[in-house]
Amino acid sequence: MKTDYNETQQHILTVGYQLFAQKGFTKVGLSEILAAAGIPKGSFYHYFKSKEQFGEAVIHYYFQQYFQQLSLLFEQRSLNAYQQLMAYWQQWLDTQISDCSQSKCLVVKLSAEVADLSEAMRLALLKGVQQVVEKITQAIDKAKADNLIDVQETSLLANTLYNLWLGASLQSKLQQHKQPLVEAMMATKRMLPLNSLAE
Predict the structure, then answer these.
(1) Which of 115, 128, 153, 198 is buried most, with the most CB atoms less than 10 Å from its CB?
(2) What's the rounded mean pLDDT across residues 136-150?
């Protein structure tokens, strides 16, 4: 019984993420979530106390999936630490210009919308972002330790790069063009120059 409960709850979270990534938080009603998930009306509160709590749970679910992808990428033995970093940014570029809502960054979609709307959701997004930046910092540290790059203040650099890509993603949405993301990649390569001896 507990397994069925968990599977249904997970299914609702997956559907919720897809809808939020496509439309945002406020434009998606509970009836739409339940209809998309194939769950009877009125049963939502059996799994979540409120739409806000559901939104927070979706954010946690999103980052859980995201961190699994990051771990797979940053542990790829076929790539060195520098190549892993570049693959991460390339993946970001590819997913943001994709038409598939399931690959979209929920931070880009929800941050401005929910920051003043829900403190719980704001903090969930903030915690997730901080953990992402920490993983990027670790990847930069590894590339530096392997003498692939020569950079200083890796934590600050990781945060700056994340902010660059977040801004580029928003600009790309406004312009409906990938150019801001392409420019972000160019800037990233300048900020993370590969050592000549490593080329």
Answers:
(1) 128
(2) 96
- In angstroms, the first-to-last Cα distance of the chain is 56
Count CB neighbours of 48 within 10 A: 20
Domains in the chain: boundaries: 52-198
Q: Based on the number of CB atoms within 10 Å of its own CB, is 143 exposed (0-12), middle (13-18) or buried (19 or more)?
A: buried
Q: What are phi and psi of 172, to 5 degrees?
A: -65, -40
Residues 6+ apart with CB under 8 A from 175: none
d(CA 145, CA 157): 15
Q: Is the pLDDT of residue 160 over 90?
A: yes
Q: DSSP class of residue 47?
A: T
Q: Which CATH number fits domain 52-198: 3.40.190.10, 3.90.226.10, 1.10.357.10, 3.30.460.40?
A: 1.10.357.10
Asked if residues 123 and 111 have their Cβ atoms less than 8 Å apart, the reply is no
Reading the block at residue 3, the tokens are: 């397994």
DSSP 98-133: SS-GGGS-HHHHHHHHHTTT-HHHHHHHHHHHHHHH
pLDDT at 6: 80
**pTM exceeds cut of 0.85:** yes
